[in-house]
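User: Show me an example of a complex going from sequences to structure tokens.

Assistant: Sure. Here are the input components:
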Amino acid sequence: MTDPLLSVRNLRVTFATRQGEFQAVRGVGFDLGRERLGVVGESGSGKSMTGRAILGLVRPPGRVTADRMELEGQSILNLSERKMRRIRGSRISMVMQDPKFSLNPVMTIGDQIIEAYRLHAGGAKGQARQKALDMLAAVQIREPERVMAAYPHEMSGGMGQRIMIAMMLAPDPEILIADEPTSALDVSVRTEVLNILDRLVRDRGMGLIFISHDLNLVAQFCDRVLIMYAGRIVETLSARTLHEARHPYTQGLLNSLPRLDAPVDRLPVLPRQDSWRDGGPVGESLETDLPGGL
Amino acid sequence: MLTVENLDVWFGFPPDRVDAVRSADFSVAQGESFGLVGESGSGKSTILRAIAGLIDSWSGRIEVAGRSVTGDRRDRAFYKTVQMVFQDPYASLHPRHSVDAVLSEALRLQGMDDIDNRIQRLLDDVGLGRGFRFRYPHQLSGGQRQRVAIARALAGEPRLLLLDEPTSALDVSVQAEILNLLADLRAEHRLTYLMVSHDLAVVGHMCDRLAVMQHGRIVEVMTVDALRQGAARQDYTRHLIHASAGYERV
Amino acid sequence: MSVTGMTRREWLLSDAPLTRRQARLGALYQGWLTFRANKLAMFGLVILILLIGMAILAPWIAPQSPFAQNLAGRLAPPSAEHWLGTDALGRDILSRLIHGSRITLFIVGTVALIAPIIGLFIGTVAGFAGGWIDQVLMRITDIFLAFPKLILALAFVAALGPSIGNAVLALALTAWPPYARLARAETLTVRNADFIAAARLQGAGPMRLLVRHIWPLCISSLIVRVALDMAGIILSAAGLGFLGLGAQPPMPEWGAMISDGRAYILDFWWVAAMPGLAIFIVSLAFNLLGDGLRDVLDPKGDKS
């Protein structure tokens, strides 16, 4: 059996506050293969913090500890900023929620992608330019030449997000962490962006961590889903069996969504229980079924 | 209760004028719950703001409870009839006003007496206990803030509530609670709702009828039953319904 | 008031205050805790409290009268009898500094009261009203900003006649434009906020929106700015005093004292250095205080 791409055990992110220590992530562990892994939870569940911790983006006073955090067998826990920068972008990339805040407003899109690429891969400018054009074509931008010369404010939200993905993909990362990549987008644009991500995972054999609050979307898009509550994984299941979820929190989340095809008078509300905060996760093991690829 | 005829709303002046809403027509009956659905930039929130008097650059006719309104001037009677709940509960509460200050100011402005008891009743109405009365917004969760915003809107006992994406900034489990609360309040106070949302399922749950908007125009007005049965006549509506159903791998 | 089993600290830090008083005190206590965590700011606060105590108790703690001349003992160096030495007329410098703290506090207090209020009013009205009112008010502000502060103050004093009262007035009238700009900028960021729209929908008029909703959000940044500007105001007041346009002799104003010592600065350094040191310490204290207040009042620092 080959090693998983990414292996995390007992990941904790701790913040010191006036009221004592606060753990945003409390002992999260999972393996990621060449698959689409969904991480679902409500605000404050620690799902975004998990993604940031993997990339070494937790700023002091936040502290990251883990029993294991390995990228293809090599530890990436608390690396120096210089070493981390070499991994970030070239081997693990991240797409944020809102492209508006992730792009530099005073640089053309072409320059930004070229710069991002050369930062990691080096190489001549002409070669980087060709790579940028290829990337824009890969995210289905019809007129890559025109877009290269444009500034971010001239782009719509969906375009911006595609450009972000293109930029993140230029150095051919092995893992892409997408933090709510479609939450700021309209539903019709959302499908296109998801199609692009989907194709990239399949064609390039990338590992994708898809962080979202939208349980149904994740279930439809991903292979495996981790459900987080209060900084812990409460349930892991394969996406196909989502509707057989056993943890009351997962069930509650599913039920509280209004549905067009099944009208109800009152939506069931989610009674939160303190016992969910502790106790082991329900469901399959942490290991991926697909370490080698789909 | 509410009639909107031939409404145009624009921003800026030529040549930079942007037409946000173009000849919108719809009416909402007393006691009805009407939804405006569309993607970002379709002009659905702009219609609400024009009705509320937060935008003055519009033309056409807006009639609320049998009285026409003009520009951005509204009289006291209007504010007693119409209130609004905003999208982002983090932006719609003054960061330095406690719940008590927010509600007592609203009650006083609406010319209410017996303020102390009314605050208690408003808090009970929206499912917040007395323990919340003296908290500041930063001591409240998103759902609790939205409850305070709803309580503020109810202070003057309005008849028409304009709901601008009231749950889109909230987690789904909190969304369920707020939607239930809104449904209860509507039954209890016999309110009329005009609700804006990008989420077809939310509108389907809350409303009786809806208008689908695209690029500032109303594409289609239909009942929610027709929506459920897939009886949409316009391509855009069908496309929206399909996309909202989730993701299908191609 | 406090429930049994609850310490006063828990009562104050409670997330669910039961009365208006508890909520207010709790907010104040939170601020105090943040402020206290800043050691330098606490140092500044202590110095300022000492300064205020000194000003109040001046007649009792000053070893001598600030006006008592002793020409025989003029320009004496610091000694056991005159801790900080004597000036050209043989007056005890320490006593003059202690009495001078009253004048300094008077200047600082008055300017700190007048200038930000003018600025707050003009800035928020301009920002909130917009249109031609904004244009007119801001151009007036620009005109004031176009002249160096001290030059403008000099012109005012020259017109009004040199006296400590006129100096204060001149300083206040030249210090408000930056506050107006700041208040206008703050107003512009909150003017279109949803909570303003919500208050407007309740039927709140422009005056109420301005006073109850916009001012509370501008005041905190103004307070910080005033505390940081204090040092500059003290120096300007000293500058006017130094030029002989502020406090008139024999008043023990610190700037005027430096001016007096200027003639002897090479041979009798303490005459000018002691009031200079006093100005330096008080300016520093205000700066540190302003820094601490920024920690407490800056809304961006609230998030935790």
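The lines above are the inputs; the final block is the predicted structure for all three components together. Confidence is low (pLDDT under 50) at residues 300-304 of chain C.
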